[in-house]
Amino acid sequence: MEKTKILLDENEMPKKWYNIQADLPKPLPAVYSPRTMQKATLEELSVIFPMEILKQEVSQERWINIPQEIRDIYAIWRPSPLYRALRLEKALGTPAKIYYKWEGTSPAGSHKPNTAVAQAYYNMKEGTQTITTETGAGQWGSALSYATSLFDITCRVYMVRVSYEQKPYRRNLIHLWGAEVFPSPSNKTNAGRSILKENPEHPGSLGIAISEAVEDAATHEDTKYSLGSVLNHVCMHQTVLGLESKEQLKMEDRYPDIVIGCVGGGSNFAGISFPFLHDKLKGDKKDLRVIAVEPQSCPSLTKGVYAYDYGDSTKLGPIAKMYTLGHDFIPPGIHAGGLRYHGASPIVSELNNLKLIEAQAYHQNEVFEAAMLFSQTEGHVPAPETAHAIKGAIEEAKKCKQTGEEKVILFSASGHGHFDMKSYELFLHGKLVDYEYPAELVKQSLKKLPNIKED
Amino acid sequence: MKTIGFLINPISGMGGSVGLKGTDGLYEKALELGAEKVSIKRAEVFFESLGLVKDVLFLVPSGEMGEDILKKKGLNYEAVYTTKGLTSREDTINTLKRFIERNVELIIFCGGDGTARDICESVGTKIPVIGMPAGVKMFSSVFAINPKAASDLLKSYLDGKSKHKDSDVLDIDEQSYRADKFKMNLYGYLKTPYVPNLIQDAKAVFEGQDEEMAKEGIAVFASEFMSDGSLYIVGAGSTTAKIAEVMGLKKTMLGVDLIKDEKLIASDVNENSILEHIKNEKSVKLIVSPIGAQGFVFGRGNQQISSKVLRKVGKDNIIIIATPQKLENTPFLLVDTGDEELDKELSGKTLVVCAYRMAQRKDIRKD
Question: What's the farthest any 2 CA atoms get from each other in chain B?
Fold first, then answer.
């Protein structure tokens, strides 16, 4: 009898995060300051980030301790269950063995609290009174408001205005956990005010919300800024996913042939895959395939260029080398809001560049079809972001059906979709649009990247 | 008090049920064949759905062109033009003159492509227009899908919740249509109100924006990728015209123009002229936008881009552009080049550029 749910005890939770920077074939390309166009210094970045976080950002240590206080909080939902998708396998008629790491059990309903709690903790240690951040649909904003509430830190969330108005439930959750949430553009910052002056009805964008949150942090005492993905330390905090999965699979005497995660900024993908890539980088698991799945409408890894670009549309954040569609690219309003990022984590980008990982892009409707099949077989309703990973896993499982191979497929089920029922409704009524990035036509117009000469 | 012009073309739609393919010039024949007055029935549905509206004065022509129904419904109206005997195109045009004199802020008409064309000629895009479909031919995109939708649109307009867009006015040559020849022309544009349809978690700026901004985004993107040295055949329509505007060129709105290296090479070209111009070009590309309510990419309103031209250009060099608003109301695109084989080749999934650096995947089908 195959087990459905593989569980670890609380005391089996990882005690260290895995830092993949220690095992990369060569160091990551340097990060540059948008202000000076020189290599960014820690001092410069320390205006908006606590020092311990910055140290983690550039650390070359392979293993970094998870403080006991953080592990105590992780224990509320960690270790998270690893499921064997027996019913999905049966529906597909595949000989593949599909496992998924279910992060929908966290208070915020996704993997996001794994880093939110860590970031809030280090800020608390360094005396930060207030943390600012941006949020699109509210997934990250709610996770950070939960985390800051645990450490008595004030949290100010700048939420993209259209989402603020149209997605009240995540906004309410942010309020419930005690954070302040403003529709962005707001009249709280110079960035917001100047945009509102031009257009009082401006619907906002993630780029504008980032500028507001960064400006707020930079101009207030004891106030820091927090980002929910992309950066190295965020990717590292998420490695608890992969580390736990590895132990859980070991209990079943299995090791994955394929590891799959969805990519927006890249932290969830990093979390599930980096601990397995560790083995590949060591030379132990040469045949391991790691697949990043992204939307056709925002396909930075499959159709972007590997170049230095700004991390945000307002050019305030550091300039990093990454796969990018251009910082001025505004992804369309697809329902996997968390995957709408013009670039990708610099580490994930470098791994893609080195061909240590593969990338796949899918259309919105086929992704929702995969989500529907998953809901109808496994019961859990996935977030639209998560559904991208499910689609990737289903495609690989179908290949196994053709070849008869009994591959072990592991994917990250990063969050539940209980707040995404409007998106499901539109899908069920045939109203979802399949956006696609016109890569060929764009090729001629990608002329706006910052000019950085690498040494 | 808002002043709104309302008119019915009472003979519109009569030819349809009796197989006349339009009623232009054939009213008596239609009556003889026992045709019903479709448009008046449609207008009844419209007003029933509308109910009582406050602070609106409807200006109407007399009799069945408007006054009769307003009187019956007990709405606030004023007859501004008196029809005599059988109503005609003259009456429509004279009524429109009165509407303009009285500065109406909106015109509602119940009719078909022929009526839309008359309004287009008299009013242009000066006054917004809501079309209630009652004709035999309704290829223009000025029409609400049905009288109920037209009344909902009017309510949104009165509540200040609507925006404006340009809608194509198309009409076929009825004489040749009756001879089973299909020749459709793009006559111009009307300004029509529409209600922006915000999608739940549209974080993107462009889904919440109005259609003019969407056109601008498409045009800026096009002006960027069009700098590749190719000769571009640019089709008719307001979306394609916007590209030329962004480039600082003057394009014919209703015709097909040629652009290369951001210069206008030729205006309002016909099939032969296109073929002549592209004969010696290394790279030729084509930019078109679907025209009319049905979403025709080829075969309606742009017959200059013939099957011969299309074969020369090649499927891979065709770039289709359309605003998200237009695509939302067009479930799939259509081609009718008159060349069955070519229509087949052009069918299938295709990308339609719908914003700055963004496209939608759409189905192209044969007529």
Answer: 67
Say yes or no: ipTM exceeds 0.90.
no
Cα separation, A127 vs A117, whole angstroms: 15
How many whole angstroms separate alpha carbon B162 and alpha carbon B143? Answer: 15
d(CA B203, CA A337): 7
- What are the percentages of helix, strand and coil residues in chain B, rounded to 5? 35, 25, 35
- β-bridge mates for residue B314, sequence order: none
For the stretch A235-260, pLDDT in tens is 999 999 999 999 999 999 999 999 99
Measure Cα distances from A95 to A249, A374, A407 in Å: 17, 17, 8
Determine the residue type at A145.
S
Local confidence band at B141 (pLDDT 50, 70, 90 cut-offs): confident
C-alpha pair distances (Å), A220 with each of A131, A182, A318, B107: 10, 17, 20, 55
- Out of B201, B227, B361, the one facing A163 most closely (by C-beta) is B201
Q: Which of B357, B360, B364 to mutate: most A Cβ within 10 Å?
A: B357
The pair of three-digit structure tokens given for residue A248, joined into one six-digit string: 């859980």
Do the Cβ atoms of B100 and B127 come closer than 8 Å? Answer: yes
Average pLDDT, chain A: 93
Q: What are A's interface residues with B at a Cβ cutoff of 8 A?
A: 136-137, 160, 162-163, 166-167, 203-206, 296-297, 325-326, 329-333, 335, 337, 340, 363, 420, 422-423, 426, 433-438, 441-442, 444-445
pLDDT at B254 over 90: no
* Paired strand residues for A134: A158
pLDDT tens-digit profile of A379-436?
A: 999 999 999 999 999 999 999 999 999 999 999 999 999 999 989 999 999 888 899 9
Q: What is the C-alpha to C-alpha distance for residues B313 and B258, in angstroms, rounded to an integer?
A: 13
| DSSP one-letter string for A45-106 | HTTTS-HHHHHHHH---SEEE--HHHHHHHTTTPSPPEEE-HHHHHHHT-S-EEEEEE-TTS
